[in-house]
From TrEMBL:
Keywords: Oxidoreductase. Coiled coil: none annotated. GO terms for molecular function: oxidoreductase activity. It holds the Pfam family Nitroreductase. It comes from the Bacteria. Belongs to the nitroreductase family. The keyword Oxidoreductase applies. The keyword Repressor does not apply. Transmembrane segments: none annotated. This is Nitroreductase. Signal peptide: none annotated. Residues 23-65 form the Nitroreductase domain.
Amino acid sequence: MTLTDNTPTRTAETSAPILDVLAERWSPRSFDQTAEVSETALTSALEAARWSASASNTQPWKFIVGRRGTPTFDLINENLMGFNQVWTPNASVLIVNIAEVVDEDGKPRRWGTYDLGQAVANLTVQAHADGLHVHQMGGIEVEGLRAAFDLGERWEPVTVTALGVVAPADRLADEKTRAREVAPRVRKPLAEIVATA
Ligand SMILES: Cc1cc2nc3c(=O)[nH]c(=O)nc-3n(C[C@H](O)[C@H](O)[C@H](O)COP(=O)(O)O)c2cc1C
């Protein structure tokens, strides 16, 4: 799967050159409700997450993957907040990103959520390179997901990822969501976030 001439793009204006895949990645809410993600592309995205770095190589993550049209997808979707549910049904895949926050001996895993975030970032970049788009969500029902997938206390659902094929913004029914889809992409200037001696 590759990006086509009709793919909506929102490339970042960067103050220094960065990899194309990083500049071109963005988080749409308008997804093509007919698109299916190939098994190859989905596996590659998850494989990229698997090969992420983690503290002491603990790999404190798990992913629950549901394709649109399956009970797993519906269960994940039911446990998103309402402002996400207005656009998530058209995603091809929903993934619950879960961190191991307490180890087998009951000790807190200090970097569990950090490592999970890095793994999801890897997944995102791989998916984008394969012509897909990703939208991460923190607006989730943590306890609902924990109960729905019987995760126990050591494992914490941190975010849900929507994965699919981007569609034009005007396909979004919700007006507020449509406006957000085309709003300028902004970042703090480098000088504000970097201290150099
Ligand atoms: C941890 C995390 C939680 C987020 N939660 C939500 C969310 O619940 N709903 C949503 O629409 N977007 C959510 N986003 C997407 C961000 O709003 C988006 O990444 C940010 O505005 C930057 O836009 P860009 O990804 O297009 O560069 C989340 C992103 C991250 C990384």
